[in-house]
Specification:
The protein is an alpha+beta fold and 167 residues long. The chain is built from 5 helices and 4 strands.
Length: 167
C-alpha cells in the first residue's frame, strides 16, 4: 500500500502541482506576515491607488465571509477540506491535463495558505480592498487570488482540453 501511495505522489505530474503550491504558500504567508506587521497592529488603512487600499480584515468564515459564525467546526472543517482537496489533486495528477495540473497547484497553494491561517489564528488574514464608486469587493489575499486563478484555469481546461488526456 505504501509503495502505491509513494508511486502516485512522486510522479513528475504530482511534483508540478506540489512545486506550484509551495511557491504560492510561501508568497501567501510572506505577504500576510508583512501585512500583519504593516497594517494590522495598530489597524490602519493605506490608500495605494484610487481603487485599491490595504486594509486589515480578519475573516473567520470562507469566501465573502460565509459561515463566519461557524466556530471551531468551520475552522477545522475548512482546514480539513483544504487537505483533502490537496490530496485529491496530488493523487489524480497523472490523469489531469497540463492546465488542470497548473490549476490544481494554484488551488492547493491557496487552500493550504488559508488553512495555515485558520489553524494559526482561527481566521484568515485578508488585506486587499478593491473598490469603485463606493462599492467594495470583500477584502481578500494572495491565496484567494490563486484559488480564483486556479478555478478559472480549470474552467478553461474543460473547454480547451480533453479531460483525462496527457498533454
Amino acid at each position: 500500500m505504501l509503495t502505491l501511495i509513494h508511486a502516485r505522489l512522486m510522479t513528475r505530474q504530482a511534483m508540478t502541482i506540489l512545486a506550484i503550491a509551495l511557491v504560492i504558500i510561501v508568497a501567501d504567508q510572506w505577504s500576510k506576515q508583512f501585512m500583519l506587521e504593516w497594517i494590522f497592529f495598530p489597524p490602519v488603512r493605506i490608500v495605494i491607488l484610487p481603487f485599491l487600499n490595504m486594509v486589515p480584515v480578519w475573516n473567520s468564515g470562507m469566501s465573502f465571509g460565509l459561515l463566519a459564525d461557524g466556530g471551531m467546526i468551520v475552522r477545522f472543517g475548512l482546514a480539513a477540506l483544504a487537505l483533502l482537496v490537496s490530496i485529491w489533486f496530488l493523487w489524480s495528477a497523472t490523469s489531469l491535463t497540463r492546465i488542470q495540473r497548473y490549476a490544481g497547484g494554484a488551488i492547493v497553494g491557496g487552500a493550504i495558505g488559508n488553512a495555515i491561517d485558520r489553524l494559526r489564528f482561527g481566521q484568515v488574514v485578508d488585506f486587499i480592498d478593491l473598490h469603485v464608486a463606493g462599492w467594495h469587493w470583500p477584502a481578500f489575499n494572495v491565496a484567494d487570488i490563486t484559488i480564483s486563478i486556479g478555478a478559472l484555469l480549470w474552467i478553461v481546461s474543460l473547454f480547451f482540453e480533453q479531460e483525462n488526456k496527457e498533454t
